[in-house]
Amino acid sequence: MNFGKSPIDKYNDIVLFTASEEIKYTIFGMSSRIAQLAIIDSIYTYIILNKSDEGKRAVNDTERALQSKKY
Q: For residues 58 and 60, what is the distance between their CA atoms, to the nearest angstrom?
């Protein structure tokens, strides 16, 4: 579990933690990075798709632009 204590925690309303089990000899910490990226990506996607009309348009425009590149 990654429940590190940081001085900035006292200034946050909500603190999110990730849980990952690292391989003993890995120097890159990939599991924890992927877990943290998943949280950030989820928050970003929620905000863009649910709180911003401009964000929705940007996502739809990007999807349309990439449609011809798929397959």
A: 5
14-34 pLDDT per residue, tens: 888 777 666 666 666 777 788
Residue ranges of the domains in the chain?
A: 7-67
Tokens 């309303």, residue? 13
Q: Tell me how long the chain is.
A: 71
Of 42, 43, 21, 39, residue with least CA distance to 30: 21
The model carries a pTM of: 0.56
21 touches 31 (CB < 8 A): yes
At 9, the amino acid letter reads: D
